[in-house]
Design a protein that fits this description.
The complex is a heterodimer of chains A (105) and B (182). With 105 residues, chain A is mainly alpha-helical. Chain A is built from five helices and two strands. Classes of the chains: A mainly alpha (105), B alpha+beta (182). The A-B interface holds A 1, 5, 26-28, 31, 43-49, 51-52, 68-70 and B 16, 19-20, 23-24, 26-28, 30-31, 37, 42, 45-46, 48-50, 52-53, 60.
């Protein structure tokens, strides 16, 4: 999975990375956290699709299992990628909001 | 893990299932236990995600194969002309000098009468055997298997040595000066 591959499914991946930026989490905690800050409920299959892609890209890594829970942690590379993508989104958001404000005047 | 979930996991590619199958199964089981999903809905979700994963993994595989093939083709396209050119060079001696030289030449002019009638010399470098067919043509062309050389000048230094300047007239107009011992 390349960075472009991650971009293809970017929304979910960004949600997962944003959640993991707050600390390591297992699947259930990720679903609940994402639900909390984004209002999006990821299904288990969707979540693991993103986790698999992100792990293959080296953006997250698996931590030792805690019973039947399998935590994941964001890597330095993942943090850099997340930061770049969020800056990018912020730039687009800023331009978009300014244009919307201009159009509604 | 419920039976429905186990069956649904079979929609994933085998490698994916080996790595994440049990984790995904446990998470789905936990969601069902907490009443956040029904077994049927979770199975349907897994089947959908598994099918997508299968498609994308097959696409990735195809992409890798296509990229490898493209790289190979580009490599061949770059290397082949160079190889052909190189082969051509060996035949026309663009860059390869003959390995050793034995020049036979007879001097007819009085000023060069001190030369032995037959002059032989071995050159150390990459020179092959060449022969001047006739002494009277020492200013003419002579051709060996590799290139056409023209004798530009023959200067006698003493009875045992001569300086012969040759020029490659076939390719690069390269000059070569040999000082040939007896």
């Amino acid at each position: 999975v390349t960075t472009d591959g991650i971009r293809g499914s970017s929304d979910r991946s960004i949600l997962v990375l944003t959640s993991l930026a707050g600390g390591p989490k297992h699947g259930y905690a990720l679903i609940k956290d994402i639900e909390g800050f984004a209002g999006v409920t990821l299904g288990p299959g969707t979540l693991y699709g993103s986790l698999a892609n992100l792990e293959e890209a080296g953006f997250i890594k698996a931590l030792p299992a805690d019973g039947r829970r399998y935590p994941y942690q964001i890597t330095a590379r993942g943090l850099t990628y997340l930061q770049e993508r969020l800056f990018e989104s912020a730039r687009v958001a800023k331009v978009g909001l300014a244009r919307i404000a201009g159009a509604t005047r | 893990m419920s039976r429905v979930v186990k069956i649904a996991l079979w929609t994933y590619p085998r490698r994916w299932r080996d790595r994440y199958g049990s984790e995904l199964g446990d998470l789905t089981h936990e969601l069902i236990e907490r009443g956040e999903m029904t077994p049927l809905i979770s199975a349907a979700s897994l089947v959908r995600a598994g099918a997508l994963e299968r498609v994308s993994s097959s696409w990735r595989h195809r992409k890798v194969v296509m990229l490898s093939a493209a790289t190979l083709l580009i490599g061949v396209a770059i290397v082949l002309p160079i190889a052909i050119q190189h082969t051509g060079q060996v035949r026309t001696t663009k860059t390869v000098l003959p390995v050793s030289v034995t020049l036979e030449y007879k001097c007819l002019s009085p000023s060069q009468s001190s030369f032995p009638p037959t002059y032989s010399a071995q050159r150390i470098r990459n020179l092959r055997c060449v022969r001047v067919p006739e002494a009277t043509r020492y200013k003419g062309y002579f051709v060996d298997r590799l290139a056409s050389w023209r004798i530009l000048s023959v200067t006698d230094m003493n009875a045992d040595r001569a300086r012969i300047m040759l020029r490659d007239v076939s390719e690069s107009q390269r000059r070569w000066t040999a000082e040939l011992p007896a």
